[in-house]
């Protein structure tokens, strides 16, 4: 039984990490499936999904810092220029959220504030999902 829980947590972590990159992943479904099977593990699932999804965004932030500087345009860039690291609170939003950490890295925004806003946004999102899933179950 415990092996299955750990395997489920590993799958959730992998899905959450990939979902925060440009690679396909669906952490919402993985979280729902995990909580359906092991509802008492909600806190571990919340923390792990937040951590893994935040690490995925952090890897995008790092990759953005490696990119050569050239002219960028677009919605993500405009949002970042207007709000700075706080815009990364929206890094969980589909499509836009994948671009925000890349653009933040490219703009060389300060890493620590970026990471704080990323983690906060991801945690709030997963907390709302956990509450909704628990209410549904």
UniProtKB/TrEMBL annotation:
Name of the protein in question: DedA family protein
PANTHER family for this protein: ALKALINE PHOSPHATASE LIKE PROTEIN, INNER MEMBRANE PROTEIN YQAA
Top-rank lineage group of the source organism: Bacteria
Species whose genome carries this gene: Craterilacuibacter sinensis
Keywords per UniProt: Membrane, Transmembrane, Transmembrane helix
Chain ranges passing through the membrane: 42-63, 83-104, 110-133
């Amino acid at each position: 039984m415990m092996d299955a829980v750990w395997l489920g947590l590993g799958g959730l972590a992998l899905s959450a990490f990939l979902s925060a990159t440009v690679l396909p992943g669906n952490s919402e479904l993985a979280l729902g499936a995990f909580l359906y099977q092991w509802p008492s593990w909600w806190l571990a699932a919340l923390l792990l999904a937040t951590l893994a999804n935040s690490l995925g965004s952090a890897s995008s932030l790092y990759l953005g810092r490696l990119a050569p500087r050239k002219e960028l345009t677009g919605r993500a860039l405009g949002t970042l220029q207007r709000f700075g690291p706080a815009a990364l609170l929206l890094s969980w939003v589909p499509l836009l959220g994948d671009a925000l950490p890349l653009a933040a890295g490219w703009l060389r925004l300060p890493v620590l504030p970026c990471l704080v806003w990323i983690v906060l946004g991801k945690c709030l999102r997963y907390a709302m999902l956990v509450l909704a899933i628990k209410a549904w179950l």
